[in-house]
Amino acid sequence: VKLGIPRERREGERRVAATPDTVKQLAGTGLKVLIEAGAGDASGHPDRDYTEAGAVVVPQLDISAVDILAHVRPLDPHTAAALKRGAVTVGLASPASELPTVQALTAAGATSFALELVPRISRAQSMDALSSQALVAGYRCVLEAAIRLPRFFPLYMTAAGTVPPARVLVLGAGVAGLQAIGTAKRLGARVAANDIRPASADEVASMGGTFIRLDLETAEAAGGYARQLSSDAGTRQRQLLAPHVAQSDVLITTAAVPGRRAPLLVTRDMVQGMRAGSVVVDLAAESGGNVEGVVPGEDIAVPTADGAGHVTLVGLKDPASAMASDASRLYAKNVANLLALMLRDGGLVLDFEDEVVAGACFTHDGEVRHGPTADLLS
Ligand code: NAD
């Protein structure tokens, strides 16, 4: 069985779907690994490391020659159409927003797996790329804020006077938010956080943050995810958060509701109510934004209401890709662990009785198997 690893084509993408480590693991199961030259360059893995690990480096990956294709970003329709009949693909696929690719995959009779659809059960944690990449993003966003803040994060007591610690507010305390809290704490900031899932209060405390309790309906849905707040509750949440936002030197937003646009938590007025020099980093910028006016990939200077200066509003883009080495280390492991479920005695065995295999699969045998995507295509 041949596994192909392409060089990622999307602009700005620096990660790779296999590292020399996972190549060793996969080659050990009897796979022949073909990797496109330069695929690991941006994440710190030169071709020779792959060769040493047992892969064959090819100048250009012939998509039609591989049985399995592992990737980071969703495939483009052209690549999907070039797959051999019955090939398997594994990677981040966002099927509901990549309909032309889904159509090409079904036309090619491919069996495609989206890492985003891996069920979040204990057994599948080692395959959970949403969590591994959210961890990277949560860490990174604090560093992005820290370098833009014209102040220290930690408390300093010096001969020249005392510098108070920065106040950091994190909105949305899922995987990325908790990591942001931990990172800001390690840098010495005073950290507060809010989430609409009641269970998150203990998690925030365990990372060293102070949970802000708001007098709101709770909004926990199946699988430990949030559900969307009613429009009244959303307005009320923004009102209740405003004074906390105004007091913060750094605001980090990570709120998401599966399958929906990111909830708007912070209006322009709220940003303008912050002190001059404050920094806002919106991790949800690419999915609609938690902060009004955010633009993915850009820093915007928002004038403060008191005329004293401006707040820097950062629309974070591809934060995991900015830390391509460790992001790839974790991502490649997620891919290899999912593939391991499908490999037996050097052969590919797809067991759709397995809830992880069945849950992650979105096309098979010419059919779309992911309900929401199928609905969009019908
Ligand atoms: P996510 O990326 O979907 O959302 C991020 C956070 O935003 C969530 O905590 C959510 O509650 C919060 N949020 C949504 N609307 C909000 C609002 N209006 N105000 C404030 N916060 C809001 O979530 P995630 O990071 O993927 O994690 C979601 C849940 O899944 C968590 O309970 C997490 O512990 C759980 N989880 C379980 C596993 C597993 O068991 N394998 C793995 C990962 C995560």
UniProtKB/TrEMBL annotation:
Pfam families: AlaDh_PNT_C (PF01262), AlaDh_PNT_N (PF05222). InterPro entries: Ala_DH/PNT_CS2, AlaDH/PNT_CS1, AlaDH/PNT_N, AlaDH/PNT_NAD(H)-bd, NAD(P)-bd_dom_sf. CDD domains: Rubrum_tdh. Residues 146-315 form the Alanine dehydrogenase/pyridine nucleotide transhydrogenase NAD(H)-binding domain. It is an enzyme of class 7 (translocase). Keywords: NAD, NADP, Nucleotide-binding, Translocase. Gene3D superfamilies: NAD(P)-binding Rossmann-like Domain. GO terms for molecular function: NADP binding; oxidoreductase activity; proton-translocating NAD(P)+ transhydrogenase activity. Its EC number is 7.1.1.1. Residues 4-137 form the Alanine dehydrogenase/pyridine nucleotide transhydrogenase N-terminal domain. GO terms for cellular component: plasma membrane. GO terms for biological process: NADPH regeneration. It catalyses: NAD(+) + NADPH + H(+)(in) = NADH + NADP(+) + H(+)(out). Belongs to the AlaDH/PNT family. The transhydrogenation between NADH and NADP is coupled to respiration and ATP hydrolysis and functions as a proton pump across the membrane. NCBIfam families: PRK09424.1 (NF006942). This is proton-translocating NAD(P)(+) transhydrogenase. The lineage of its organism: Bacteria, Bacillati, Actinomycetota, Actinomycetes, Micrococcales.
